[in-house]
Amino acid sequence: MTAQPSALRAPVDAAHVLGRCRALVRPALTEAVGRMHPWVGEMAAYSFGWCEVGGTPSVAPGGKGVRQALAVLGAEAAGAPGRAGVPAAVAVELVHAFSLLHDDIMDGDAARRRRPTVWKAYGTGPAVLAGDALFALAVETLAARPGGPRAVRVLSAALGDLVRGQADDLLFAARPWTGPRRVRPAEYRTMAEHKTGALLGSAAALGALLGGAAPPVVDALDRAGRHLGIAFQIVDDVLGIWGDPAVTGKPVHGDLRERKKTYPVLAALDSGGRAVRRLATLLETGEDPEEAATLIETAGGRSAATAEARRHLGAVDTVLADAVLETGAADELRTLLEYLVRRDV
Question: Which terminus of the chain, N or C, has fewer Cβ atoms within 10 Å?
Fold first, then answer.
């Protein structure tokens, strides 16, 4: 493949990339959801922000479509047209929606994107059913394509990792803040790779696979997505403590109020500094999240999180630089990945 001279290539804008990929994928995603049982399909459409309870069309903002964009760009990076990655994009978007429906139930989250979650709007049982239906539809979408068996294996492996990550995340909540059984930063990184990175990696890998990429390219895009998932999760953790509520949609110090074991907290507790004992007391009781945030920063938790996110972003760049990718799509892929994690690092 011949690389276009950088001086002749137009600047790449992440919002444009996301919009282009959403426009390519949306008809196929709509068609897939339309094959579901009408009631279950309504819950799926509600989860995507397409309608309100009862089916009335909605103007509620949906997600950015990051995973579907990765699938389209994965196909294009392999030298195929973006439409080759559309079935992969549909499948990973369905799986992502499935995971959010179940995740909201497990975490007891009552709102997502500033409106009631599916289980709050329709009930717990119906939300579980809708999640199951989304998962089944995702597998069906891939299985029907040429190369479907291999694609389903890739998706199944990612789902297995996602379940492992979610299990670890739930178990972390019951472990102590200090002592030999405390959660270490390395354990958290593994959890984040599984819970967040596995699906991001499989999105790009599946797009490349359906686009006819060689196995080394498919594997490289999977690794890049996994590093991205860790960086993305850690940046999200930073924003969960110090982010602007007007941007994040979450209250300031929200993760501390909920006593979540996030990366900045774990890194601070692992530092062994003088602030650790007082910080552990505050985390144990849930008192004074403002002081806890200050102690985390004093103990180096925020800077350690920033450094770790940058390290994984650098790993993404290295993986992509070593892979043989179509130049224009690779540029768009890098722009999208940087957009996702350069929010506060």
Answer: N
Query: What are the residues whose beta carbons fall under 8 Å from the beta carbon of 74, sequence distance 6 or more?
Result: 85, 88, 203, 204, 205, 206, 207, 208, 209, 211, 213, 221, 333
Q: What is the pLDDT of residues 11-38, one digit of tens each?
A: 678 889 999 999 999 999 999 999 999 9
- Print burial letters for 71-87: b (CB count within 10 Å at least 16), e (below 16): bbbbbbbbbbebbbbbb
pTM for this predicted structure: 0.90
Q: What is the DSSP letter of 115?
A: E
Q: Are 93 and 69 in contact (CB under 8 A)?
A: no
8-341 classified as CATH 3.20.20.70: no
According to DSSP, residue 183 is labeled P
In 3-state terms, what secondary structure has residue 86?
helix
Model confidence at 344: pLDDT above 90: no
